[in-house]
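Chapter summary example.
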Amino acid sequence: MKKSASKLIQYVLFPAIGIFIIYQLYKDQNAAEIGKILRNDVDYKWIVFSILIGLISHLSRAMRWQMLIEPIEKKPGLINTFCAVMTGYMANLVFPRMGEVSRCGVLSKYEKLSFTRVVGTVVAERLTDLFMLVLIMITVLALQFDFLGGFLLKTLKLESVGEIFHSALFYGLIALVIVSIFLVKRYAKQYRALMFLKNLMSKFTEGVSSIRKIKNKPLFIFHTIFIWTMYFLMIYVCFFSMPATSSLGINVGITILLTGSLGMVAPVQGGIGAWHFMVIATLKLYGIPNDDGGIFALVVHAAQNLMIIGAGLIAIGALPVINRPKNEETVLATHK
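The structure predicted for these 336 residues follows.
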C-alpha cells in the first residue's frame, strides 16, 4: 500500500503539479503570438550553440566521473561513461531522481563494476556539485547584494538583514531542519522514503573518501569548474537569441544559473514547471516582461531536454553495439 502511494505521488502527483505550474505561467499568453515569436524573433543559432555547450559539459562530467571511479575500481571507458551519463539524464525525464541509479546500473553492466561502489562515487559527485552551488550562491549575493538583498528584504517585509535572524521564518527553518533529522533517524526503518534519506546520508563518507583518493586532484577541480562554467554559458549565450534578453549581462546569467538549479531540485521530471517559474521570476526582477521571460524559459528548457532525449536515445542504441566484442569474448572465455 505504501509502495503504491509512493509511486502515485512520484509518477502522477509531482508531474501533475509541474504541468499545473506550466499552465498557470502560460495560460494568459496567446498561443498564436507565442508561435509567431518562436518563428520570427528567436535566433536559433544561439540555441544550437547552447546545446553544443551542454554536450561538452556532459562529456567533462563523464571524464570527472572516471576520475572518481578509478581509485576504487578499474577506470571505465570514456564512451561507456558518457553514454551512461546521458542515459541517466534521460531517465530523469521519465522517473524523477532515477537518473543516478540508472547511469550507475548502465556503467556497472557494461564495465563489470561494483554497483555499490559506483553509487558511492555519484554521492561524491553530488557533494562536489552542492559545494559549487553554494559557491555560486555566495558569488551572486556578493555581486548583487544591494539589488537582491533589497528585493529579499522587501519580499519578507524586513527593514534590515539583521532582522532575518530575529524573524519567525529563520527560526522556523532551523526547527524544520532539526525535526527532519530526528524523523529520519527515528522512523527510517518504518518508512521507505526516510530509509532512503538515511542510506543516502551514510553514503556521504564513502563518497568523500573517493574524492581523497583521486590521483590528479587539480584536473578534478578543473573539470568541476569547467562543468559549471559550461552550465552558465548554456544560459548566457541564449540571451542573444531574443531581442528582449540580448542586453542582459553576466550577472543575470549567473543569477539564473543559481535560481534555475534550485528549480531543478524539485522532484518533477526535468524540472518542468519549477525551472520555468524560477527563470521567469528571475528575469522579471531584471525588467524582462512575463511574456518574453516565458518564451525564453520555454525555448531554453525545451532545447536542452531535446538534446538530452536525442543523446540519450543514441546512447541506449550505441551501448550494446559498442560493447558487443566484450560480451562475445566473455561468452567464449566462459565456454573454454
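To summarize the output: Residues 284 and 290 are 6 Å apart (CA to CA).
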